[in-house]
């Protein structure tokens, strides 16, 4: 008795056997490959550290945007920043300090915030004649104010002028990698020819959507010649010795 063989069925079985043999030889097992996605901002299985110079800039409320740039105005994105969802706006303001000292064309960053805040470097505050304290963003109680001038109007800030303290943005995966938590302090080492600097007191600002990025101001960036740095290293602050020194 003859048996009729389905040729297409045989071809399918052969192809399946070949695929299984190839998978076993290349992977060493029949288990499927992992489909896990690398943490945000990571490269080659580890955090990708970026150190950025944060030049003087201004954050505004929705109300102040309309006063400075006209009724119905909103911030217009011009350039995306490294942190997703944040941008440098097309709009700029003039900052007026005591004795009519001015800084023209100070960039506004978006999106808008619940309160307006001006962030300067030390040399900027000297130029304006404002004794701006070092503060972390949002800690503006008791800080000096200034006048902001836009094409449609002006705003008197009673407080909000600060020298932004250095800090590092990171997500939960970055924090686990370094063994730190939100609010901890870290140390940034910048190695440059003849002007290497170690910056202490780098505040950890952990957020699930953040990418690893240290922010220092223009004075700090110039002091360590960041643009020509040969190496940057982020690490936990060393523990104080038992003697207390």
UniProtKB/TrEMBL annotation:
Transmembrane segments: none annotated. It is an enzyme of class 2 (transferase). Its cofactor is Zn(2+). Pfam families: PTAC. The keyword Metal-binding applies. Keywords: Acyltransferase, Bacterial microcompartment, Metal-binding, Transferase, Zinc. Its EC number is 2.3.1.222. The keyword Zinc applies. It is found in: Bacterial microcompartment. Belongs to the PduL family. This is Phosphate propanoyltransferase.
